[in-house]
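Protocol step 6 of 9: fold each sequence in the batch and record its C-alpha cells directly after the sequence line. For illustration, a two-sequence batch is reproduced in full.

Sequence one:
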Amino acid sequence: MKRRAGAWIVFGVAIVGVIVYAGVLVSRGFSAAEEPSSVENIVARVVRNLAIPRRARKAINPWKPTAALLKEAREEFTDRCAVCHGIDGSGQTTVGRNLYPKVPDLRSARTQSLSDGQIHYIIRNGVRLTGMPAWGSPHGEGKMRAGSSSC
C-alpha cells in the first residue's frame, strides 16, 4: 500500500514538472534562434538513440579505408553534408547555426562515440524533427563505406 502511494506521488510530481516545463516553453516561445535547453538536448539524444534499432547499432562497416574510398567519402561529405556540418564538421555554417536543434559538432566526443552502425542509420534514415534528411542508401543497398559515416 505504501509502495503504491509512493509511486503515485512520484508520478504526480513528474506530471507537475512536465506541466511547469511546458508552461516555460510556451511563455518563452519556440524560436530556432535560441539554444535548446539541457532538458531538450537530453530528451532529443535519448529519443534519437531509442529510434536506432539494435541491429543497426551493432552493424560493422564492411569497407576497408582505401585512398579511393576516402576520396569518394570526402566528396560525398562536401556535396551533401558540409552545407550544414561545415567542411571541418563543426556545424558552424549559416545553415547549421540556424537549425533547431543546432547541428551537432561531428568532432565532439559525443558524436565520435557513436558506432559506425548508428551513424549509418542516422545518415540513411535521417532524424525526425531536425534538419537531418534521410539520404536513403547513397552507397548501395546495405553497404557502408569507409568515411561515409561522416554526415
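Sequence two, same batch, same settings:
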Amino acid sequence: MQRWHRLASGQASARQVAAIGLLGTLAIALVDLALGGRLSMFFDLGFITLCLGLGLLPRRESSYVVAFMPPLVLMASFAVIGVVDAGVVGHSDDGMVQSVITGLTNHAAPLAIGYALCLVALGLRQRSLVGATRNG
C-alpha cells in the first residue's frame, strides 16, 4: 500500500514512470484493438490522458527525464506492436521500423497534445513545489 501511495503523491522514480507509461500505452492499445481491430481515437485520447498522468507522477529529481518520455513511450509501444503485427500501426507490408515511423506519423497530433500536457503538468508541479518550499 505504501508504494501506491508514493506513486499517487508524485514520488515515482523515472523508471517507475517509464514502466507505467509503456505498460499503460500497450494496455490502451490492446483494449482498442480488441474493441475495433485498429488504433482509433480511443487510443489517441487514452494516450493523451496517460501523458497528463505521467507529468503528475515523478519526484522532483526525475522530472527532467520524464520530460522526454511521451515520444519515447509511444515509439517503444509501436515497436512492440510492430513486432507482433506491423499492419496495426503501419501498412500490412511494412517492416517493423517502417510501421513505427508510419504509426508515429499517423498519431502525431495526439503525441503533440499529450507531450504538451505532460510538460505543462511537470511545469505546474515544479512551480508548486518551489512555492511550497519557499512558504514552508
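Proceed to step 7 once all outputs are recorded. Observation for sequence two: The chain has one domain: 2-135.
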